[in-house]
C-alpha cells in the first residue's frame, strides 16, 4: 500500500521558518471461508515512493531537529520519523527522562473518540508512552497536554514522535502550539537538552502538498513483527510458496519466485521466524502426481513392499515416485533465512490423489476402495516416509535432530480439516454427507475417526519427541464445528494411553500437542471476544484449551472489505495476545497461544483476494509496492502498524 503524506506549508514557507506555530497536519494513512489454501506472490519497490520528497525539503527534514510530516508511527527513509518528530540521537544508548508539553487542538469529524500517543523509540522494540490523550468527536479548543516518562533506555536510533490509536485517519486534523520536549540523562541531569518543535513567532496556514511514500518492509524504519512479539509467541510466521504462479493463465514453469527470492527471504527473516509451505508439502505434491517421470495419467507405475506395524507386507509406490525436489529447496531456503517451518500437512482429504485409496492404484474409486488394514498400512508408510526424509535432510544439513530441539520443522499438521461442518450430524467429515462416496476418501474407507487417531499414533512413532503434533481446521469457531473438533481432540488425547493387552497399531500411543486454528475470518464474523459465548472466536479457543492442547494460529487472514481496515485485525490480535502462553497469567489448564502464522504475504496474491461474486478483499498485512513488476519488496499496511501498536 502507498502512504499519502500531507505536508502543510509550501517549500518556500518551510524554509522561511525553521520552527512553526499553529502547524496543521492532516492525517492520511491506512488504517465465512469454507475451505483453505492456495497462497500468494510478491511485489516491487521504490523506497522513496512514486512521488519523492523535493531535494530541498528532504535536506530540511534531515538537518533540523524537527520534521513536519504525518502521524501514526510510520517512518520515512534514512531513519526519519513522521509528523512532529524529534531526533534523540544525542542520547543514543543512554537512560533518560523525557518531558513534553504543548497546546493542542483537534478536529475529529468521526463519530467516535480516538487516542493520540506521544512516544519514544526505546531499545529492543519498546515504545514507551510519555503522554496520551483521548480526543472526542468534533472540534476541540486548544488544550494543554503534558507528560513525563523516566527510566527510558534508548537504542541506536531513538526518536520522540506522535502515534495514534483507534482513529479513522481521513477524519482527523491536528493543530499544535508552543510545543517543547526536555530530555536529560537520569544519572546526569546537567546533560539536558530542550527541543522546541513549534515557535509562536511563526504561524503557517497554507496549501497541502501530498507526497507518496512507500516503505520497504526490510527497512530498519519498519518495526519487526517478530521482534515486537517475540516475548509473546514462540513463532511468528507466514505461508509462502516457492514458485507460485502469477495467475491461473500461466503454467507452473512460467512463474516468479517467492521463497526462492533472496529479497523475499530477507523480508521474511525480518518479520518472522517461521514459514508454512502453501502447497509443496501436501500429499499430492510429495506423491509426485504432477512432477515425476514414470507416472501415467497421474498414477504411480513403480512399486515396492512395506512391512507395517501389523506385521504384514503391503505394496506401496517406489521411492522413485516421490517428489522431494521442491521440498528440499524450501527446506534449504528456510535454513538460509535462519528460520524454521510448520509442516503442512500429512493427512488431508483434499490434495491427496484418489489412487492412494484404491485397490489397483487407479483414480477410479467407485467400488474400488481398499480395506481398512491396507489403508492403515499406506497411511503409516506415507507418514514414516515423509518424517524419515525430513530427519535425513536434517542430518545431512547440520541439525542435531533427535530430541534436542534443533529441527528445521518444529510442528507438523498431522491431520487437516477432518471435522464435519455440522457437528450435530456427525463429528467426522463425510459422516454429515448422504452419498455413498463422500468428499473424504478417508471417511469412505473407515466410516469412523480411526484414521485420525492412527495418524497421531504414527506421527508420534516416527517424529522426534520434541516436534509438536497438531490437528488443524477451519471455521473452528462455529458452535457445532467447535464441538466436533473438541471431540476429535478428546479422542486423540484418550489414545495417548495404551490399553492393557493392546496389539498392533493400537499398541502405539498417540500424541497431540497443538490445535491449529486456521483463522480464515470474515469482515464481520465471527465475533472476536466472548469467552463464554458459543460461536465467538474466544469461546472456541477456550474449548480447545480445555481439551489439553496449546493453540497455534496457523492461517490468519481476514476478508476485509476495506484496505484501511484496522479494528477487525486488532480485535482478533488482542484475543491472541490475551491468551499468549508466554504472557498471560489466566491460562486455561496451563495452555495458551504459542504462535501466529499469516496466510500469505500480500493482499494482491492472497487466496481470498477476489470473492466468487467479484468482491475485492484486503486480507493480509502487506501490499506490493509496485504491482506491475516483481522484485520481492512489500510495504506495510495500516493493519500492520496497528498490530505493532498493541504492544507498548
Keywords:
elongated; single chain; 13 helices; six-stranded antiparallel beta sheet; eight-stranded parallel β-barrel; 26 strands; disordered N terminus; alpha/beta; 648 residues
Please characterize this protein's 3D structure:
The chain is α/β, with parallel strands linked by helices. Helices cover 21% and strands 26% of the residues. The chain has 13 helices and 26 strands. The protein has helices at residues 11-16, 55-63, 225-229, 262-271, 283-286, 325-336, 372-396, 441-446, 450-462, 479-494, 537-546, 567-578, 638-645; strands at 3-8, 23-26, 66-67, 85-87, 95-108, 114-120, 129-135, 138-139, 143-153, 159-165, 172-185, 188-198, 208-213, 235-240, 274-277, 303-307, 313-317, 340-348, 409-416, 468-473, 514-517, 520-522, 550-559, 593-598, 622-624, 634-636. The strands form 6 sheets. Strands 14-15-18-19-20-21-23-24 form an 8-stranded parallel beta barrel, surrounded by 6 helices. Helix 7 (372-396) packs parallel to helix 9 (450-462). The longest helix is centred in the middle third of the chain and has 25 residues, at 372-396. The chain is elongated, with a radius of gyration of 28 Å. The model is unreliable at 1-83, 197-212 and 245-255 (pLDDT under 50).
Amino acid at each position: 500500500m502507498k502512504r499519502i503524506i500531507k505536508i502543510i506549508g509550501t517549500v518556500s514557507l518551510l524554509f522561511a521558518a525553521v520552527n512553526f506555530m499553529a502547524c496543521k497536519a492532516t492525517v492520511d494513512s491506512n488504517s465465512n471461508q469454507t475451505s483453505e489454501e492456495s497462497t500468494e506472490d510478491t511485489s516491487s519497490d521504490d523506497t522513496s515512493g512514486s512521488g519523492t520528497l523535493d531535494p530541498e525539503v528532504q535536506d530540511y527534514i534531515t538537518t533540523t531537529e524537527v520534521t513536519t510530516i504525518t502521524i501514526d508511527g510510520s517512518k520515512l527513509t534514512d531513519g526519519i520519523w513522521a509528523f512532529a518528530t524529534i531526533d534523540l540521537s544525542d542520547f543514543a544508548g543512554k537512560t533518560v527522562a523525557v518531558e513534553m508539553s504543548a497546546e493542542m487542538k483537534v478536529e475529529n469529524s468521526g463519530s467516535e473518540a480516538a487516542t493520540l500517543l506521544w512516544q519514544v523509540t526505546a531499545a529492543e522494540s519498546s515504545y514507551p508512552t510519555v503522554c496520551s490523550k483521548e480526543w472526542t468527536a468534533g472540534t476541540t479548543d486548544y488544550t494543554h497536554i503534558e507528560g513525563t516518562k523516566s527510566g527510558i533506555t534508548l537504542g541506536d536510533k531513538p526518536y520522540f514522535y506522535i502515534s495514534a490509536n483507534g482513529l479513522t485517519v481521513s477524519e482527523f486534523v491536528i493543530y499544535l502550539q508552543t510545543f517543547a520536549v526536555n530530555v536529560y540523562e537520569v544519572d546526569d541531569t546537567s546533560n539536558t537538552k530542550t527541543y522546541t518543535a513549534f515557535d509562536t513567532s511563526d504561524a503557517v496556514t497554507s496549501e497541502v502538498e501530498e507526497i507518496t511514500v512507500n516503505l520497504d518492509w526490510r527497512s530498519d524504519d519498519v518495526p519487526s513483527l517478530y521482534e515486537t512479539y517475540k516475548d509473546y509467541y514462540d513463532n511468528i510466521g507466514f505461508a509462502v510458496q516457492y514458485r507460485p504462479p502469477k495467475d491461473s493463465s500461466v503454467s507452473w514453469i512460467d512463474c516468479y519466485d517467492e521463497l526462492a527470492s533472496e529479497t523475499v527471504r530477507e523480508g521474511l527473516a525480518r518479520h518472522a521466524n517461521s514459514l508454512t509451505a502453501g502447497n509443496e508439502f501436501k500429499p499430492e505434491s510429495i506423491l509426485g502426481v504432477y512432477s515425476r517421470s514414470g507416472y501415467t495419467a497421474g498414477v504411480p507405475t513403480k512399486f515396492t513392499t512395506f512391512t507395517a506395524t501389523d506385521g504384514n507386507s503391503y505394496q506401496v509406490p517406489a521411492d522413485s515416485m516421490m517428489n522431494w525436489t521442491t521440498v528440499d529447496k524450501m527446506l534449504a531456503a528456510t535454513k538460509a533465512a535462519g528460520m524454521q517451518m510448520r509442516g503442512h500437512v500429512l493427512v488431508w482429504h483434499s490434495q491427496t490423489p484418489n489412487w492412494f485409496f484404491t485397490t489397483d492404484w487407479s483414480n477410479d474409486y467407485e467400488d474400488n476402495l481398499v480395506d481398512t488394514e491396507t489403508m492403515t498400512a499406506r497411511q503409516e508408510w506415507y507418514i514414516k516416509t515423509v518424517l524419515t526424509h525430513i530427519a535425513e535432510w536434517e542430518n545431512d544439513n547440520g541439525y542435531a535432530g533427535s530430541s534436542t530441539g534443533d529441527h528445521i520443522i518444529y510442528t507438523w499438521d498431522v491431520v487437516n480439516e477432518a471435522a464435519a461442518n455440522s457437528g450435530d450430524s456427525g463429528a467426522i467429515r463425510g459422516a454429515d454427507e448422504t452419498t455413498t462416496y463422500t468428499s473424504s476418501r478417508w471417511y469412505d474407507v473407515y466410516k469412523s475417526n480411526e484414521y485420525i487417531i492412527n495418524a497421531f499414533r504414527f506421527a508420534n512413532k516416527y517424529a522426534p519427541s520434541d516436534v509438536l503434533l497438531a490437528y488443524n481446521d477451519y471455521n473452528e469457531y462455529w458452535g457445532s464445528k467447535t464441538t466436533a473438533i473438541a471431540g476429535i481432540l478428546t479422542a486423540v488425547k484418550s489414545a495417548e494411553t495404551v490399553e492393557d493387552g493392546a496389539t498392533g497399531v493400537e499398541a502405539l500411543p498417540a500424541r497431540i500437542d497443538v490445535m491449529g486454528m486456521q483463522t480464515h475470518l470474515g469482515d464481520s464474523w465471527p465475533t472476536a471476544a466472548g469467552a463464554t459465548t458459543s460461536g465467538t472466536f474466544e469461546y472456541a479457543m477456550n474449548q480447545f484449551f480445555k481439551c489439553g492442547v496449546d493453540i497455534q494460529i496457523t492461517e490468519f487472514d481476514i476478508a476485509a472489505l476495506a484496505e484501511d481496515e484496522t479494528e477487525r485485525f486488532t480485535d482478533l490480535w488482542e484475543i491472541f495476545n490475551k491468551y499468549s502462553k508466554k504472557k498471560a497469567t489466566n491460562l486455561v489448564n496451563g495452555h495458551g497461544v504459542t504462535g501466529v502464522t499469516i496466510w500469505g504475504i500480500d493482499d494482491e496474491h492472497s487466496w481470498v483476494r477476489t470473492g466468487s461474486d467479484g468482491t475485492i478483499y484486503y486480507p493480509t498485512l502487506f501490499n506490493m509496492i509496485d504491482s506491475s513488476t516483481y522484485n520481492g519488496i512489500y510495504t506495510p499496511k495500516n493493519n500492520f502498524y496497528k498490530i505493532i501498536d498493541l504492544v507498548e
